[in-house]
Amino acid sequence: QVQPAESGGGLAQPGGSLRLSCVASGNILRFNTMGWYRQAPGKTREVVAVWTRGGYTNYGDSVKDRFIIAEDSANNTVYLHMNSLKPEDTAVYYCHVSGTELVGSGQQYFTSWGQGTQVTVSS
User: Fold this and answer.
1) How many Å apart are CA 79 and CA 122, to the nearest integer?
2) How far apart are CA 24 and CA 69, in angstroms?
3) CA angle, corner 90, sides to 34 and 46, nearest 5?
4) Phi then psi for 55, rounded to 5 degrees?
5) How many helices (H) and strands (E) does the chain have?
6) Contact 10, 69 (CB under 8 A)
7) Nearest to 67 by CA among 50, 44, 45, 54
8) What are the tens digits of pLDDT across the range 6-56?
9) Is the separation of the CB atoms in 63 and 50 below 8 Å?
10) Which of 4, 14, 73, 104 has the fewest Cβ atoms within 10 angstroms?
11) How many CB atoms lie within 10 A of CB 85?
């Protein structure tokens, strides 16, 4: 079973930076997507940034030009570099990965969420 684990959250000041990391464990053959989502209190989960096999990246409108997603699929890792942080970036950030894993002598598709890491932007 593929399990992503996030790290790197915490408290940052407005205008500051943080880097989140997500390492996925399991018998992973290949990733289709590696991405970050966030959920603020009282709001629905929204996309932050997603990398798709083939090298395509998509960003949520509110983070474009401030956040950068970087994948290291060879090491089952995806990063989120967050710059020029704003108080409205405060949320729990979740890692999501999908792809194909080895199961016994076969393969199967997986889609997995991490437990989340809290990011708080406040002075």
Assistant:
1) 22
2) 16
3) 45
4) 95, 10
5) 0, 11
6) no
7) 50
8) 999 999 999 999 999 999 999 999 999 999 999 999 999 999 999 999 889
9) no
10) 104
11) 22
